[in-house]
Amino acid sequence: MAAADTEMYRKEKSLQLRSSSAALYNNLSVLRRPGRPLACCCAVHGPGLSLVSADADGTGFSHRQLQAKEGSMALSASLLTQAAWCVLPSRVLLVLTSQKGIQMYESDGSIMVYWHALDVTEHPPAQAVFARGIAAAGGRFICVGTSSGLVLVFDIPPKGTNITVSEVLEQHHDAITDIAAELGQAPDGAGDLVTADDAGTLCVWSTGEEFALLIKIPAFGCTCSSVKLWNGIVAAGYGNGQIRLYEAATGLLSAEVNAHARWIYALDVAPQTGKLLSGAEDSFVHVWKLSRDPDTGDVEIEHCHAECVTDTQVCGARFCDPEGNSFAVTGYDLSEIFRYSRA
Description:
The chain has strands at residues 2-3, 9-11, 15-16, 29-31, 40-45, 48-54, 61-67, 80-87, 92-98, 101-106, 112-117, 131-137, 141-146, 150-155, 164-170, 176-181, 193-197, 202-206, 212-217, 224-230, 233-238, 242-247, 253-258, 264-270, 275-280, 284-292, 299-308, 314-319, 326-331, 336-342. By secondary structure, it is mainly beta. A five-stranded mixed sheet has the order 1-27-26-25-24, with no helix packed on it. A hairpin with a 2-residue loop joins strand 9 (92-98) and strand 10 (101-106). The protein starts with a strand and ends with a strand.
């Protein structure tokens, strides 16, 4: 691991949330709009989602609360497990996962366009049922993971509500934790989707009319809580505080970094620069730089910046622009989003 030029990020004005953030993996989503500063952020707390969107002139912010969708038989409020914007070429949808199912909204949260109930009967009685792990993939699909290890592939039309489950991927035996699609240029032969589970198993897929499993990277006794895919590099964050980098074409381990002292809760990649953001229970957020050696093609990682978010169990961290010049952070029990930008 090389030592990088240290980049300085400074703290900006925080965004207030209507409710505090729950201690869930990847509990922050940021909708990046080209050429605009921060557009929208959201974080989950219990059965509700706090949505903050910047006004068109950038001077103020508007708030919206969304609630977990209930099935007709619901006796108690369903808890949300994640929320994320899925950006497809034709449209942007806001996807929420919960103990009951999967909701898809127009990007501002105003109109629900689809609701998919989880089939509780497929699970053993004592097992928790939920959906978790959300990613847009392959130009017209949204993939969502479940607690039984299935990955549901939804075919999304350019407009309207005619959303269908086109495929179910059955390779994981443990609850899905996170799903990520390729954010850069995948090398030939490398997959463009990666799925991770509670046991730490990773699956790399090639998307298309039918999804094909390319590689299964075995678990090593530790949960993989967050995963990203950039330029054929799989970046995975684990419960032991490690970040591991794998080749998406071969599944070979290219680097491992003891990045955090405690459980990693979030990773993000800035697609234009290969900057990697990691946030963990140890109150630290780190910025790294991924690259490939121009001569050998080997994967390299260097450390760029460390930020201590004092007395905060970081549960969400996202870049706010494609270059990685600014990022936002949520923490357990915090009812604000911290923002940082390059000095």
